[in-house]
Structure formats: structure tokens, C-alpha cells
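Worked example

This section walks through a single chain of length 522. The input is the sequence exactly as stored; nothing has been trimmed or padded.
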Amino acid sequence: MSVHALPMIGWLLMDGEQEKETIDIDGMAFDVMIDTAETVIAKHPSLFQKSGELVNIVRQRSGMVGFNHIHSSFVRYLLSKAVSWVDGEKGMIHPPPSIGRCLLEKDDHGPIKHLRTVVAFPPMDGAGSICVEEGYNKETEVYFSGGVKVTVKDKPTKEDAQSAIAELLDIVVDFPFAGENHKAAWIAAVLTPLTRFMHSGNFPLAVFQSNGPRIGKTRLAKIISLIVTGADCPFILQTNQEEERKRMLSFLKLGRSIGLIDNVTGEYGGANLAAILTSRFFEDRTLGHSKMVVVSNDCFWMVSGNNIILAPDISERSLNVRLQCDDERPNLRTGWKHEDLFKHVLDNRQALLSAAMTILKAYITAGKPKQNIPQFGSFEEWNDLVCGALVWAGMANPTSTREELEQEADIHRVTSCGLVDGWLELQAELGKFDGMTAREARDALVDGDVKVTEFRDALLERSQSRMITAAVIGRHLRTVKDINFGGRVLKCVELDSKKGNKWATVAAKQGEKDVLAEPAGG
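Given that input, the structure is written out below as C-alpha cells.
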């Protein structure tokens, strides 16, 4: 059969009656053979290319819809199922293994449909249009898995939005939110994954925390997943940066709408999370391969834990959903309005999902009137849409909870400030107002008899080692250089690879003629 006739090939179901098309590869060039095979499997309804890889859509036993990254043997199976392969006088053959391998290794798969992600909720665009039809939409490259029907008015009003908010809050009426803004932050977390196709910006992190265990912070996160996806929330546990990066990449490759990092302890943050919160695409090497993949970042990330302390760069990119319960044994509380809460949410998912979409559509229908809310750097589009809608409907501004997270993250800033001010005191103690080296500071702190303790205390608190060496001092000085702490800045005033760099705390914003600041309290 000629290549020109290939568009006539359809995906043939195994009905036992219909005869397959035939492809004779005798004398066919290898590149033509690959293009032929690619055109054949492109007709398969659940086969797509995503981030340069071939995937097929699968529905897991949990109800989550995701992807399988297919193997070359499965490609050969699809080719064998679709057409009969012939090699001249040899007659019928199996599809050559080299075809399957080559198709998987190609970066671009020509006629095979591109897939951005699979969602379990009807996608809504920036104009408020809702795609309720189950299946693949080639305009958005999004596959809606179906299973839920939303009911949203064509032109909902502010009153409709307020009623929708009340409907959503009814299911969390027994949760002890620390304040109205925390309650608004939870509603914002419900809306956030639904806005993925309404703007091209990023999402902040949603932090679910409480002042103790068994108060309900993880349940709040799971409720969002039940509303948005109709299934329990997929989660990963806090681990080292390398392992966490691999797991995050796996979530993105599978096109998850929501991801939860559960039971976070200690100070939490890191480069992986910072990057994933402010990037629309995530690039990394796949496990066991040298090939780099670039995946679309469509996942809304949440973390849960007790009294979480975020790294400073993460606290600035987060919402805070905090629960506060003063009961000694909160797990023994009774008198719930919804005894089996998860079942209630699933039974009423259609209404709850419709309510969430009503809030967004009502705000868009009203023309998205500008609200008097602070800007949220890196999340401007999300802030204007989600927070704007909630404030417009009468709720507190969800992003006001960010200030609490930033204050709690100031533990790191306090020690940084201690290094800068402590260095100035140490300069004054040693009479080295033009600056000094890390070696000179080490000798004074370890071998000398200096009276100042602020620098030593800040250094030991930041360092994992109790040893004070010139290398440790230099490393921590570099982490705080050129940052304004209350009008004081630590600068490297002289570079000397042999004797060591010379450091000095100076007054901020003095240009090239920096003047030495007075010691703190002086």
C-alpha cells in the first residue's frame, strides 16, 4: 500500500468481522516505514504525545485519570492490531522491533495528537466558557475525563457567587479556621486548580497547617481533591531534595491537577519547590536516562503539617490555611454536621464543583472589576482572578495570610541580621573599621578574648557544625552579603585570594562611597 493512501487507514476495532488494511514494507525506506507506522498509531483514540514522549490515557482503580508512558512492545502491539504487515514474498510478519524503538526515541511525533494534560473537571477558559464535552479538545489540547456534569448559569450574579461560597463553606463548617482570611484562603485553594486554563501565570503554594495533630489540615486538602478530581489526593512525603525533585517530575509527567506534600516538619523549602512555583515548565532528566524532558507545570501544590516554618523564599510564594484548636485531645471532638464528610463531598461533588465555577464565572461576567488588593509578585494573574473574585464577593483577601508565613520565616532573617550587626560589633571590638578577613574573625573568636557574642551566636545557629573556622565564617558571610538589614549591609570591600577577602558592615545605599555604620545600639 502506498504512503499516499495512509490517511484512509482508520483505527480498526477488533470486531472479528472487519478486514485489516495491509502494509507491504518490501523495499520501503526506513524513514518511510517510520512515517507510515506513525500515521497508523496516530489514529488510536487514547494515544498522544506529551512532552516529546508517547503516552496513553488510563483510568486507575482509585478513579484518577493519568498516563502510561508506553514501551516499544506496546507500539508493536498497536501496529499489529491496526494493520497487517507484509514483507514481499515472506508474507505476513510482525511489525519490526526497530519501528517501536525509533518511534519512542523521536522527539517529535508528527501526526500524533499533542496532549497538555488530562483533567477530571470541565475546563474553563479566560472568557468564562466551560467545555462540558467529555474527551479531547484539540484547541486546548486538554482531555476531559468526564464523569461529572456542572450546572452554571450563563450570567451568574454576585449574589449567585455569594450563595456558592456559602455552599462550599458549609462542608467545612466544623473546621476551626484561625481567622476569616484563612477561611478565604481555603476557598481560594478550591478555585485555584480550576483556573489552570484561564490564565498563563503560576499558582502559589497552599499551606495547610494547624497548631497540633488530628485537627483536620490534611482533610481540608483532601476535600479539595475530591471536589476537583473526584478522587483522593495523590501525595508524596517530605524527603531529601534529590528524591523530591524526581517525585515532583513524576507528578508533572502524569499531568496531575493537584499534588500534596504531607506531614512536613522543620523548615521547609528549597530550590525545587521555589522553581516549580514560579515556572510554567519544568525541565529535568528522566530517571535512568540522559535525555532531558520539558513538561508543562499544570499542578497545584499543597503542603500540610503542624506549625510549619517555611524557608523565606517559599513563604513569599504561599497561602496560609491555618486551623487553631485549643482542645487537649482534638481527635475526640464530636457533633459534626457531616459525620462522613468525604462521602458527603463525593455525593455532592457535582453541586460543589458547580458552585466553585459559579464564583469564577460570576466575577468574569461582572467584567472582573478591579479590587483594592495588594499585588502578589510572580502570581499576578492568579491574584487578579481568584483573590479578586473572592474579595468582590465579600470575603477577606486570601493573600493577607502570607504575612503570617513571612513573619514565621523571619527566624532565618534574624540570624542573618545577627551576622551583619555582629560583624560590625566585632570590627569595633578589634578596631578594624576598614574591614577584616574571616581568618581574623576566627582568631578573635576562638583564640582571643572578645566580648561580643551576637556574631558567634548567629553563626552557630546557622551552621550545622559547632566548629568555628575561617571557611565556615566566609561561607556564611557570602550568604548575607549585599542585603539590606535595617539600613546595614555586609560588603566585600577588598578581594585578596592570598590573605583572604576583607569584609565590612556599612551603611546601605551610599553608592561607591559607602560609609561605615555605627555599631547596633551605638
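What to look for: Confidence is low (pLDDT under 50) at residues 1-18, 510-522.
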